[in-house]
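INFO batch 0412 | record 1 of 1 | parsing
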Amino acid sequence: MSIQLWTLILVVLSFALYIGIAVWSRAGSTKEFYVAGGGVPPILNGMATAADWMSAASFISMAGIISFSGYDGSVYLLGWTGGYVLLALLLAPYLRKFGKFTVPDFIGERYYSQQARIIAVVCALFVSFTYIAGQMRGVGIVFSRFLEVDITWGVIIGMGIVFVYAVLGGMKGITYTQVAQYVVLIFAFMVPAIFISIQMTGNPIPQLGMGGTLADGSYLLDKLDGLNAELGFSAYTDGAKPLIDLFCITAALMVGTAGLPHVIVRFFTVPRVRDARSSAGWALLFIAILYTTAPAVAAFVRTNLIETVSEKTYADMPAWFHKWEAAKLIAFEDKNGDGKIQYVKDASRNELSIDKDIMVLANPEIARLPAWVIALVAAGGLAAALSTAAGLLLVISSAISHDLLKNAIMPHISERGELLAARIAAGLSVILAGLLGIYPPGFVAEVVAFAFGLAAASFFPAIILGIFDKRTNKQGAMAGMVTGLLFTAVMIILMKTDKLFGTEVPFIKKVAGISAEGIGTIGMLINLAVSVVVSRLTAPPPEEIQHMIEDIRVPRGAGQAQQH
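INFO prediction complete | emitting tokens
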């Protein structure tokens, strides 16, 4: 069977499974819609968290970035994995003991202020919509190549699927759907990685194959360094980024992870406080399977790509090359008219442009694996993107219906009315998310990195100070969140456009060696400084709030999720 037919079969079967689970586990109350009833077992919650976390950026784009950046791409591995350690140790058990539905719930209650809640809602929407743009873009890329439809139509199809199971099932449906999606995505990522590792190094363990020897007796990474050097690129195992930028990007990804509302909410879905920490441990284990494999996949695909295209004639390119070219994700321009592909670092001579987001998806094709393996990767990419998109949509809908409508605008709304509002908000959010997928502000992992920077600069200081510093008050938290978010958002826009009021300002592209992906660390530090200083210059929180903070930190049993 053809790749397209295999893809259609696997995608239809997996989508039918997701929708079936959503129908079976349909939410019947606001508690089930927001936190799955608070009764998800830790191991299943760990799988769902891993699927929620391993988005299109992890599945589709991360190995692509590493394959082009080499050593510099390790910041994504270190930052995203380290962030989960922070989350498990510093946030998850305390937030679960607090026992509310959402992050703005915690901010509003902890800082005894509706204004603080509303600022947190704005931050949650800002971060979530930035993040979801990358997911919908990933969906469009998969559909455009493997089902040979336009990226726009691919995004629209993905919107329809997410709409059904996110709006219908709520957190309860999403949780059990994400368990299935984790199984699909990890199987889809590992199978081709194992096949290619055996093919290239004879070792069935990709993590070991990356450091193994090839058929000619050379080490894979040594050969990759040599191939890069021949084409004028930096050695694959050397870094080109300044140390300060590596540090800031890693830190932004770490604290951004610990501040992402769609990840934090997963720890409200377990029965007990200790289950929150257990869930984080299971999630780390499930995530590690993919994260330790991604560098190997990056090395395999980079080696195969260079050997396939460099100095080869365009007419001899295999079918996969022309398929991706038709999808407008590979472009060849014969600048010297010799019919050969000049793939080099020098922009004036380079004739090949490759979208980083295709590397994992094209990997099995480049390695000439069977059609069903290629189709499996497509199904896995969709599972990764849709699982995270669904989690983000729930954050958006709950922020609007629960935090804004129920707790700020219409406090007397009925549970049925709140549930209807949540579903309407989710539906409208799907439409906006689709538009962001059709007109994305960058490639998938880059967009997601911006979301992490925004989360780091807005939520993380307010949450960590809210748990561990009784003296932080509402004035400090609000001033810090607004300052951190505005600084980071403005700087990202300026750094990505290199313009100030329409005028080219080249030095804005990097500030003190820090790129847009790492500027969230500076925003986070500004947030912390503003929060602490303003809190010390204004009145302390009320006594009952300080007692509540002490109660959250002292592990005196499990709190049950409360419903207002």
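INFO post-check: Residues 151-201 form the longest helix (51 residues).
INFO record closed
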